[in-house]
Amino acid sequence: MKPSEILKQPIVTEKVNKQTEKFNRFTFIVDKRANKLEIKKAVEEFYNVRVEDVNTLVVPAKSRSRMTKAGVLTGRKSGYKKATVTVAEGETIDLYAF
């Protein structure tokens, strides 16, 4: 797979921003079929940085429901795979440049 197929999008939340500032970690939504070695290679190629560590987790799908005038609407929120990448000391990824 190409790096653009493996890395779907970065996650930018308050928690991730604190991890970025404190531990130099960045979080991405990745393809479910990608393993840690492929994710590491994709980040290194795409952002031109050296990756020290990759942690992954699969966020499970959830069912959602809400009340409307027409009754209860139910649906599903799909699951995804999330990867937290630790970048080498002194290097950084500028997520807002692209």
Task: Note down, in words, how this protein is organized.
- The protein has a single domain (3-87), classed as Alpha-Beta Plaits.
- It has helices spanning 3-6, 14-23, 36-47, and strands at 7-10, 25-30, 51-59, 62-68, 71-77, 80-87.
- Strands 1-2-6-3 form a 4-stranded antiparallel sheet. Strands 4-5 form a two-stranded antiparallel sheet.
- The chain has 3 helices and 6 strands; from the N terminus they run αβαβαββββ.
- The chain is an alpha+beta fold and 98 residues long.
Summarize the structure.
The protein has 98 residues and is of the alpha+beta class.
Topology diagram in text:
Elements: H1 3-6, E1 7-10, H2 14-23, E2 25-30, H3 36-47, E3 51-59, E4 62-68, E5 71-77, E6 80-87
Antiparallel strand pairs: 1-2, 2-6, 3-6, 4-5
